[in-house]
Amino acid sequence: MNKESKMDTAKCPICGKPADKSYVPFCSKRCADIDLNRWLSGVYKIPTNEAPTDAPAPLPSDSEGDSDIA
Fold first, then answer.
1. Does domain 1-43 sit in CATH 3.30.50.10?
2. Which contacts of 1-8 are long-range, i.e. CB under 8 A and separated by 24 or more positions?
3. pLDDT tens per residue, the chain (70 residues)?
4. DSSP 3-state percent helix, strand, coil across the chain (nearest 5)
5. pLDDT recorded at residue 31
6. For the whole model, what pTM was predicted?
7. Is the dihedral of CA 11, 16, 18, 21 positive or negative?
């Protein structure tokens, strides 16, 4: 099965319409934007075994010696 025939059967995960080559795996920019918003707003989450923390992770320190720039 080649990519063309997979495209013919692929459906948009948001609305179920046939996928468009320009927005694979979605059918339109609208559905692609809906999916992006779901990721950014926390609707979609990737499960982990890590315990949740209330404090944000610290930023990596600069070990190149640029820290004395005033």
1. yes
2. none
3. 565 555 568 999 999 999 999 999 999 999 999 999 999 999 998 888 888 777 676 778 766 555 555 5
4. 35, 5, 60
5. 98
6. 0.58
7. negative
pLDDT at 51: 80
Of the CA atoms within 13 Å of residue 64, those in its CB half-sphere come to 4
**Residue 59 is which amino acid?**
L
CB-CB neighbours of 11 under 10 Å: 13
Take residue 69 and report the two structure tokens written for it: 């720039």
Q: Which residues pair with 18 in a beta bridge?
A: 11
Contact between residue 35 and residue 14 where contact means Cβ atoms under 8 Å apart: yes
CA distance 16 to 29: 14
Is 34 buried (19+), middle (13-18) or exposed (0-12) by CB count in 10 A? Answer: middle
